[in-house]
Structures are given as structure tokens and as C-alpha cells.
Amino acid sequence: MNVSSVPRDAFCFVSQSRWSRGIFFGENPFSSNTSVLLAQLTLCALTTALLNHALAYLGQSLFVSQILAGVILGPSVLGSNAIIRDLLFPVSSFYTVDTFRFFGVMFYLFIVGVKMDMGLIRKSGKKTVVIGICTFSIPLLLNLVVSKLITMYVAMQPSLYSGMISIVSFQALSSFQVIVCLLADLKLMNSELGKLAISSSMISGFCSFVWVVVVFEGAHGAQVEKKTSLIMLLSTGMLVFFAICIFRPMIQWMNKHTTDVDSVKESYISGILILVLGSALYGEYLGQHFTFGPVILGLVIPDGPPLGSALVSKLELLVSSIFLPIFFVVSAARIDFSMISLRSFAIIEGLAVCTFFWKVVGVMLPSLSWNMPVNDALHLALMLSNQGMVEVLALDQAKSVRLIDEESYSIMVLSIFMLTGILAPIVKFSYKPSKRYMIGEQMTIKYTNPNAEIRMLACVHYQEHTPSIINLFEASYPHPEAPISFVVVHLIDLAGRSAPVLVPHHPGMRDPSPSNESNHIINALRYFEDEHRGYVAVYPYTSISPYNSIQNDVCCLAIEKRVSLVIILFHKHPLIHVSEEETNAIRNVNNNIIKESPSSVGILVDRGTMTYTTTLLRTSVYRIGVIFVGGPDDREALAYACRMGKHPNIRITLIRFLDESIGTTFSRQMAIDSDTINTYRDAQMTNKQWFYQEELVKDSLGLIAVIRSMESCFDLILVGRRHKDGSPLLAGLSDWNEFPELGCLGDMLVSLDSKCNASVLVVQQPSAISF
């Protein structure tokens, strides 16, 4: 080949084979492209996972771990060693790595589009729209003014001067998916501010997306003739037309012919993925970015089940855990610290600080005008000021079309990394949604007027929980003189969506139920309400949120509806058989509700007596026992039992355990317990369905013996979760607790070696109430 025919930016390297026969044939495995690629994917994924596991405790997001992994594996740290660089990241592997990293990005952004609910833009209130627009527009406009002043009075390199407007434009960007991922990492997705941040970021992200398209179209238009630019715009419009008018009806037809996630046909998934690849090729052919088509197709696919959830479940784990880390490693590896000048660094970082300040101003001004507390407005501003993977991808594309130079790219990626690394821990450790639930008023059964309306909230995960809940509602004895309002929340783990939703199901309105299971639950509740018309009101909801923060929806509803008791179902149920992973997830949800609930909590362990009883109205006698050892939780259980005791078909037996070694010595706690018992005994003297007995025992063995002797005497047993610490009656019981959330007595009643067939309701007053 003639030397003059070689392009100026070309370089030569030794070609590697496609595969290696292995060390037993005397060949180096890393002499093949395939082995090197597998090593790179493995190393990038493993390093990212280890860093994320370590840094999560410091409040860092996944994005920080991904960039840090790229820096560590890049030329600045491990890559500086020539042996490691030539072995794992040879020049000959760059083309293959680039293909894989962009392939991962393409499908990642397609998943982002699928999980987005475009209806959030339509449903957004005025406050959300104003905050979203200000989050993008104020930093962009004010920083354009600042950049103009800098270019007038500060000397800089020509490449930085020509790219100043592009730098300011990309610094002002905001991404919906980045904010959602950050809030998911911080477990704040369905907190009050988290929901507002997600809705606002949808608006600001849409503005950013439109602006990025304008910037890149302008860059392309400046390099081609006007006629060619118009043809490019027309071709882009054709892709959008195909997505809306052809692809979306096709997806709606698929959804209509699919009942649930598990029944989605493989041919549907394959056809969609082929069209995604074809849209990317179409974009590349026209000079558009290859991710534009997949994003548009993703946006027109309805989020959630069945099709959206199926696509996400099949793609997300592989793409985000294996393919995506290589993108960040290569992006961070291209940061060359040696080429960064101090003057350029100061100018770009100064603009970044100004952008952050303008974003804080742009969020806080409209927030404060809507009377939001200053502390909440500031935390919302910190959430919306974060950037991440989408902005890095935009910078990478801007560098490829020469809107910014290599030096500016390196500084801006570092800026995003440092800003996110600082803001995420601040938000995590300073914003505590649970503080909102610690209200002064005691929302308990004990402090509710026994002759007034009572409000209860129940959480269900499966339709099999419905009979248990309805029978407990019936046992609560709603009647005309003491009506009851029941709030029931169907808890569903977030899948196939980006944003959590809380859906109310009001009678008479178009039911937006997201699943058939929710419909079955709601229908059963409506039937129960009709049977008790006039003194029962049922308010069904469906909460679709990540399990690690779904308790926020429950606590917010408890405060909003002023409920006195929150009922949660024990994670083990005789009719439900699910994976151990799902069981543990439900158990964690229960524990979070127990810790953060502003109301009393009842943990219902149904051992069949609540499930198989059709209704208490058709049962001659339903036997309930109350175990009373002492303490606020036992007093709360007794208060609830007294409401139940008014039911004509319920017989209450109160068993009080006394320490025979104490004699006549009474502490303040025991005096309160005795007064409570005496008050309820006096109130129930004329009630022939109420029984009382005292048991004198000297230690925990005596207490266990008495309880075991009466296990078969009841259909339901009420017991407090917590008791007085150091009581000899409970000594040693907590050492063998299998389920600490049930307390020592509740755990004993449901343990494997117990022969008790009665269901158990473990009651706890709010954690904020002291003993």
C-alpha cells in the first residue's frame, strides 16, 4: 500500500485471532479478540459491582461507582501499567469494545423509554410543570449570559472558545432516568419529595431532550446543504410517524391479546427487538444518533404489564449489569488528566458551579412560591441537580461531532462525577421521609373514642389475603353507632416502570386497576361494603412502588386518612406458596412499616381460622383470647379486643399474667396496667361474652406452660409485641426468636414446634410512643 493513501489519523496494530485453543495447546488465551472481550466484560462488571456494594453505605449512587470503575481500569490507574494495558486493553480491542458498549447503551435507552410513563406529563400539575421548566431554562439562560461575559474578559484556547455555547447547553441538561435511578439507589422514589422530583424531572427531561435534538440537528445542518438538512428532518419525522401511527397500534394489539407477563409470546419480543435494531440502523444511515430510534420506539410502548414488564425483565439485568459497565469504563478511560490545563479546568468548573447554583434557584423559587418548606425546597433542588449516564452519553456524542473537544469532555465528565458524588450522600443522610410520620397526636385504638368512628388500614399482597382481611374487618364489629372506615392498599413491586404510582379506586369512575388481581380484591371489598351499607366505608388503593420504599405510601395514607390501626399480613400464609426471595421481600416491607408507621400496627398471622371462616355473621361463637403481660402494646391489644367484644358472635377471654414473686409491690408501669384492666373489667361486667382470668407464674417456663395449655381454646389470639424489659416472666424467650417482628410471645405462638392452630394478631403502638 502506498503510504500516502493511509489516513492521517490511522494507526497500525498486530491483528489477533478470533479465538484461542487454550493454554493446554501452548497458546495464550489473551491472544484472541474473543478472550480479551470476555475478560473486559467480566472485569468491568465485577469492579462496578464491588465498588457499588462498598460505596452504597456512603450514600453514593450507582453512577459514581461506574465512573470510578472506569477511572481505576483506565490509563490513569491500572492502565498505566504497560503489561496490564497490553494484556487486557490492547489497541486491537477498541473497535470490538466500542461496538459492545454502544450496543448496551442502545438497549439501555430503549428500556428507559419503555419504563417511562408519558402520561405523567399530561397529569402533571401546574407546580410540577413550572418547577420542571425552571430546572432547565433558568440554568441555560443565565449561564449563557455568564459564558458570554467570560469569553469577553477571559483569555482561553480557541477550541474552548468555539465550544462555549455547547458546554453551557450540556451542563444545563436534566434527565428523568438519572433522577429516577438516583432516587431508587437512595430508596426515596415514593417519598413525598421523591414523587415531586420524578414528575418535575419528566418535564425538565423532555425540555432537555428537545434541546439536545435541536443542538445536534443544528450541528448537522451547519455541515450540509439546506436541502439536505430538510431531507434529514423529513426522514426523522418519518421515523416518529412510524413509531406513533404503526408501531404503537401494533403494540396495543399485542397487549390486548396478552393476559399477563408470563403469557407474552416470544414472537412478540423478537419482533420488537428486531424493529429496535432496524430503527438504530435507520438512524445511523441518515446521520442521526443510533439511539434516537430505540428511544422513540421505547417511549410509545406502554409501561408496566404485560408487554412493558416482559421486555424490561428480559433485558434490564443483562444490559445494566454486563453491557453498561463497559460503556462507563471506556468513557472514563478516555479522560486524559495530562491534557487538562488549569485555566480550562477553572473556566469549565466555574460554569458548572454556576449551573448548579442556577438550578437550585430555579427549583427553590417556584417551590417556595407554592409555600413549600425551605428545607424541602432545598432537598428537592439537590435531587434535581444531579446528572449521570444520559448526560455522559450526550457529551460523548457531542465530542464525536466536534461540538466540544477532548479536554472539555474530560473536564465535564469529571464535573458530573464530583457533583453527583457530593450531592447524593447529602440527600441520603439529611432527608428523612420518616420524620414526617412522627406526629404529636397518638393515632391508636386506645386513644380513639370507643363509640366514635374508627379508621383502619390494611395492606395486602395477594388476593388470597382478602378473606383474612375481610374476616378481621367483620371481627372489628362495624355497626351504626360505631362505623368503621377501611383503607385497603394492594402492594405491588415496581416492575416495567420507572415511576411509582398510587392508584385510588373510587366507585363510579373508570377503574385504572393495573392488574386482574387488584380487581378481584376490590370486588370482594365492595361486596363487604354493600353487606354493611351505612356503617362501613371501603377505600381501595393500589400502590406500585419498589418494595424497599413502599412503606412511604402506607405511612402517607395512614396520616392522610387519620387511621388508628395498620394491619399487615405475616409473610407466611397457608394458601400462598412463592419463592423465598419474594417472601423475604414481603417480610422486609412489613418490618419497614412496623418501624415507620405513625399508627398502631397489627401483624396478622393467619393459620387458617381467618381464611376458611366464611364470615363471622354465620359463625355461632368465635373465640378470641387476649394475653396480657403488661406494657403499652398489651394495652393497645386489649383496647382493640374491647371493640371486638361488642360483636354478638365473639367471646373474649382476657388472661393476665402476674409475677407471683412481686407480691404487693407495684411499679408505675404495673399501676397503669392494673388501672387499665380494672377500667375494662368494669365496662364489661354486664357482657356475658367477656371472661377474665389471672395466672400467677414465677418465670418464663410457667408462662409458656399456661399458654400451651390454652392453645386449642381460641380461634384468634391477641398479644402485644413489646413488653417490659427484664421481666422474669419473659427471661430467655427472646434468645430463640425466629421472627423478632412478632415479639417473644407472638413468635412462640407461631413457631414450628407450637401446636397452636389459632391465628395470631400481634399489636404494637407507634414506635414514636415511648413506654
Automatic annotation (TrEMBL):
Q: Which UniProt keywords apply?
A: Ion transport, Membrane, Potassium, Potassium transport, Transmembrane, Transmembrane helix, Transport
Gene Ontology cellular-component terms listed: endomembrane system; membrane
- Membrane topology type, per the record? Multi-pass membrane protein
Please give one Gene Ontology molecular function term for this protein: antiporter activity
Q: Does the keyword Metal-binding apply?
A: no
Indicate the segments forming the Cation/H+ exchanger transmembrane domain, all copies.
47-427
Q: Which residues cross the membrane?
A: 37-55, 62-84, 99-116, 128-154, 160-184, 196-216, 228-247, 268-287, 307-333, 345-365, 409-431
Give the Cation/H(+) antiporter central domain ranges: 489-609
Kindly state a single biological-process term from the GO annotations of this entry.
Answer: proton transmembrane transport
Question: Per the database record, which ranges form the Cation/H(+) antiporter C-terminal domain?
Answer: 624-765
The family database entries (InterPro entries) matched by this protein are listed as: Cation/H_exchanger_TM (IPR006153), CHX17_2nd (IPR057291), CHX17_C (IPR057290), CPA2_transporter (IPR050794), Na+/solute_symporter_sf (IPR038770)
Task: List the Pfam families hit by this protein, alphabetically.
Answer: CHX17_2nd (PF23256), CHX17_C (PF23259), Na_H_Exchanger (PF00999)
The main place the protein resides is: membrane
Return the protein name. Answer: Cation/H(+) antiporter 15
